[in-house]
Sequence to fold (270 residues):
Amino acid sequence: MTPSITPVSISAAGLPASSTRLAGRTAVVTGASRGIGLAIAQRLVAEGARVVITARKNEALQEVAGSFPAGSVLALAGRADDPGHRQEVLDTAAREFGRLDILVNNAGINPSYGPLMELELDAARKITEVNVLGTLAWIQDAYRHPDLGFAGAGSVVNVSSVTGQTPSAGIGFYGVSKAAVGHLTRTLAVELGPGVRVNAVAPAVVKTHFAKALYEGREDEVAGAYPLGRLGTPEDIAAAVAFLASDDAAWITGQVLTLDGGLLSAGGTA
Fold:
């Protein structure tokens, strides 16, 4: 399915026209052809960054790339867990932009729904490979790349989930993988400081194609469990990611920022 494209709009991102918080920075955003990943790329560009976006499907990725201001985005399709793709993306960032300042690990999968006792172990392995090992591999490759300067002044933002903090029916192993992303974030923050800051965001249900099974046809009912009275939007997540990636968060590392409209505080689950 080809995603609908939301044009880059500074006003939609909630920013003044003069915002240049990320001017001169270069970012890589994975899983960026739609939903949260696309919104993150839009927000980073709106704040002045240049961004390399990646996703599996080339046609959809190139289509969204065309909605960005000229020269602000490069698009390279490939699987997030493919070492060759990672190398191509990072080499491109080095060649075209000369540096990498921000790495956003948004790519993730959840091909299974149901109780853990019915989970096919091959599906669990694939979820782990993409959501956990893929996240680690992107950070390793960026950190080790000789031409990016990332090891000395980089910022990583991983996309976790509230399902990594409390069990959610039907998506248990996805939650296990996102719990691992949270602990990976904290561990790498200790290992890679002071040169690299590593943080994560943990959204509850966000209105995207990826999450529609959790709210489609009953959005008002689901949103009623949230103290703020609504589900999240991709722009909500993008704003938090931009903050964590910026110098405004210069003394923040090893944190998993919960973005849930108050859901967990009210005793809810995604």
About this structure: Residues 121-144 form the longest helix (24 residues).
